[in-house]
UniProtKB/TrEMBL annotation, chains A, C:
Stored InterPro entries: CoA_trans_fam_I, NagB/RpiA_transferase-like
Top-level taxon: Bacteria
Pfam families: CoA_trans (PF01144)
Alphabetized SMART domains for the sequence: CoA_trans
Native source species: Cereibacter johrii
Protein name per UniProt: Glutaconate CoA-transferase subunit A
UniProt cross-references to SUPFAM superfamilies, sorted A to Z: NagB/RpiA/CoA transferase-like
TrEMBL record, chains B, D:
Protein name per its UniProtKB record: Glutaconate CoA-transferase subunit B
Source organism phylogeny: Bacteria, Pseudomonadati, Pseudomonadota, Alphaproteobacteria, Rhodobacterales
Coiled-coil regions listed in the entry: none
InterPro entries, per the entry: CoA_trans_fam_I (IPR004165), NagB/RpiA_transferase-like (IPR037171)
Highest taxon of source: Bacteria
Transmembrane intervals: none
């Protein structure tokens, strides 16, 4: 495992709120093992807006105290086994949400606003269990128009993987703008990339349009195939068979441990 | 001789019928059947209008450029006409549960979670509940957890909501005023007694309900040709399975 | 004047709320004259977030009932003469705002939310004069934390100019994402472009990142140098001398009329 | 022989001093002097730290990629340390008026409008009020219209606010608690009596205020070399004017 990934992981300290992207948007799987070796636990994960393999592995490794998410799943490979077990055992706390509510919370943080209003949610048990959300009567309505307020979600750290960065610290995220939203909202952003290029991504308007400026990026490290076994848009496809193997192995705590030990060489 | 419609082809054709008049439909990443129905609708409409189909997580059928928030923003703007929702449980008031059963938060069985349901169910005018498994454990009298409610009290801003429920056994439409489901048709091979036994909630029905229409020859040809080809790009496993079923059903030469 | 510009202008009907971009973000100056010839008045202009030459000319032509803006100015060329005169004469209504409040209103519309919260503004005369804004006590605070709510701004039509579009109706906006925000928020979007290309802008991830999808675009027309005398990023610079000439001429109503008549041939 | 500092060079140097310790500063599109001060600060700091400078509307000094909202979002996130505000009127409580005088909305004299002031004044920790014209019609006792207030009551969320006021005559710092301005220094050539006569609001001052420091030789060389070159890209007219002044001040050979 490259030392820079280990150094990046050491930014994560116990109890921090960590934002992680959805499966198809650039999950830094390369950071999963460094995070586990770093060992900082009691983490509060914010899935943007859903979680998968990485979330399941961090839970399996015992690092997670709370998951704020719209879903955790392995997609075609089925339910997330360590997440499901932890829910059953009551060893993690849950903030069940709906996708646009997570986006709304991040947008509030991006704008420095205390909250965003959002339609929907009224009458759901999601709302009933979220004591950190509020319902007010729409002040612009004629009365009797309840609307939910979502407070700003301000992660300590956002972690994701992208196709490329330049040596000035700018990261190309293309149309996966939720990665920018995560970075705007978070105090620190750690990024792994397939490769670092010499040219300045901002000096060409075409690449600039899909670039997250260095202003928002604390650390970058190269990690080729760093989303594996997830895919990365324009680069490589998801290795579904590997996710299936994980899903099957991780049904038990022992199976999970065995899988992680066996894959140590592959992921390092 | 044209091979008789497979059960999945009846479902896909039914989905296409439910999408009549729709201009923009979105389907989830793991929803091959709704995607196929949408592709069929698109093919049927293309001489008159362009049906936009957004498949979440797909690259080929993704014309969004503002990240994963854009689908929801689109729905909030009223630019999304139809969407599909499943559910670990669906009840007679069209409440859906995507979270789990046996307590919350410490659920005995936990499902992935509510995804965008608690928003899209309110904002998309035509939500089609689609769940193939039609058993008393899915079609329940009352869901254990409301990920998204089927109806809302007067005053709650709700341009959207459930239009229909489609399962492997039958098609229901939803009456938002009553509220409740009414049986529209039984799929070929399913009887009313069978349906009543498999359904945990009460619903209205004729004594002798109609049978769900099967696609005609031209539609079947479209389905097995162009739609199957288009589908293969995003759902290769489902497409291969469908082709296998077609091959298996082929009368011996 | 090409017929397609005239046809686009005919989408504008009296009393509509029209969103127009800031000077440097792609003003469709090519549409100004067709809008004036179309003649639909009583318009409510929303400047995103400030206005300039186009706004001044529409006011000078008597088409504008209300301006919602953070500022109207000709930049280096000074104050906007027809706007300033109209304010003095009381012939237009004003909704003076601050830039991020306009962005917040558009974002609320983008999200289908009734309002966004915004910091700042408390104690300003802007707030005092905006009876369409509300102040509430932050429901997430401990009390005594006033915060302003900005209602959704939902223009009937957004009009702007961009470097290129493809024949599928997708428009390349690069990093000028306020143009996307305008389109998301508006019922209809009309776009002029320097040129229309044959390739699909969405089929290449690099160009897709800066593309507004056809879903949001009602009509597109080619209008080479369509931002003139404003510049267009990556294409041509602002013709400051021309804006100066306008600023000087338009000090009087007669001078404005003379300028517009003299430039009819140039702009057509 | 080094040419003595021009008045504008004293101002630019003062701006650079006011930006000490700043990591990210933004300046408006039509603000050559603040831009020059920021460029000088950047040049002075570059061996130790990287000062980020955002010039609105510029292409070369624009590392934003999310449209014109990004500056404000940045400020809301606490990522913007310093900003410059002008004002058609500025009063003794640091209220600024960018809207007009003689009534509202039907103003006798209308200025462009408040731009981002009503937000940035609240969110940017170090706002520098910069207006060259120092006359009783600009420096008023009470502004006609508050585009953005200088201070806020306790409880109002306000991490930002005015730090200093710089004019063609003097430099003031602002005391948020009192609240009010205190004279820091008079620019070369300006006397206290002159300043008092030109200022419509009361301010604290020493009997014998210090003179605003001029840049030393090395700083002047940096200003007239690298900074002037950098500035030329975005503010060609201002740069040409500056060069003309330098040429005119050159002692005849």
């Amino acid at each position: 495992m490259p030392g820079d990934l280990r150094a990046m992981a050491s930014c994560v300290r116990p109890g921090m709120r960590i934002a992680l992207p959805v499966d198809y948007a650039g999950v830094s799987m390369a950071m999963t093992r460094p995070l586990i070796e770093n060992g900082a636990g009691d983490l509060h994960l914010v899935c943007v807006p859903t979680g998968g393999l990485q979330v399941d592995q961090l839970i399996g490794a015992g690092l997670v105290a709370m998951v704020e998410t719209s879903a955790v799943s392995l997609g075609e490979a089925g339910g997330a086994p360590r997440f499901n077990q932890a829910v059953k055992d009551g060893t993690i706390r849950l903030r069940d949400a709906t996708c646009p509510a997570i986006h709304a919370g991040l947008m509030a943080a991006q704008k420095g606003s205390p909250f965003l209003s959002i339609r929907g949610l009224i009458g759901s048990d999601l709302l009933r269990h979220r004591d950190d959300w509020r319902v007010i009567d729409n002040p612009f309505g004629a009365g009797g128009d309840p609307v939910v307020l979502i407070p700003a979600i301000t992660p300590d750290i956002a972690i994701f993987h992208a196709p490329l960065a330049d040596r000035f610290g700018n990261v190309w995220i293309g149309r996966r703008r939720e990665l920018a939203a995560m970075a705007y909202a978070s105090a620190l952003t750690l990024v792994t990339v397939e490769r670092i290029v010499r040219r300045n991504l901002l000096s060409d308007e075409t690449t600039a349009a899909g670039t997250l400026p260095a202003l928002y990026v604390a650390e970058i490290a190269e990690a080729p195939r760093g989303a594996w076994p997830y895919g990365l848009w324009g680069e490589y496809a998801t290795d579904t068979a590997e996710i299936m193997r994980y899903a099957s192995a991780a049904r038990s705590a022992e199976g999970f441990a065995g899988y992680m030990a066996a894959r140590a060489g592959v992921q390092a | 001789m044209i091979l008789a419609p497979l059960p999945r082809e009846v479902l896909i054709w039914t989905i296409a019928r439910l999408l009549e008049g729709v201009r923009h439909v979105a389907v989830g990443a793991a929803s091959p059947m709704p995607a196929a129905g949408s592709m069929l609708r698109r093919a049927l409409d293309e001489s008159r209008t362009e049906l936009r189909l957004s498949i979440l997580g797909s690259v080929a059928n993704n014309f969004f450029t503002n990240g994963s928030t854009e689908l929801f923003d689109c729905a909030g703007q009223g630019r999304l006409d139809a969407f599909f929702l499943g559910g670990g449980q669906i009840d007679g008031e069209a409440n859906v549960n995507l979270v789990g059963v046996g307590g919350y938060p410490q659920s005995r069985v936990r499902w992935p979670g509510s995804f965008g349901s608690a928003y899209l169910y309110f904002t998309v005018p035509r939500v089609i509940l689609f769940r193939e498994e039609h058993t008393p454990r899915v079609m329940v009298e009352k869901v254990d957890f409301i990920s998204a409610p089927g109806t809302s009290p007067a005053g709650v801003h709700r341009p959207g909501g459930p239009a229909a429920l489609l399962t492997s056994k039958a098609l229901f439409r939803f009456d938002r005023d009553r509220p409740g489901f009414t049986l529209e048709s039984l799929h070929p091979g399913c009887g009313l007694a069978d349906l009543l036994a498999a359904t945990g909630f009460a619903f209205q029905h004729d004594d002798d309900p109609p049978v769900t229409p099967a696609p005609d020859g031209a539609t079947l040809a479209l389905l097995r040709g162009r739609v199957l080809d288009e589908l293969e790009e995003t759902y290769p496993a489902f497409a291969a399975d469908w082709r296998r079923d077609l091959a298996a059903a082929q009368p011996a030469a």
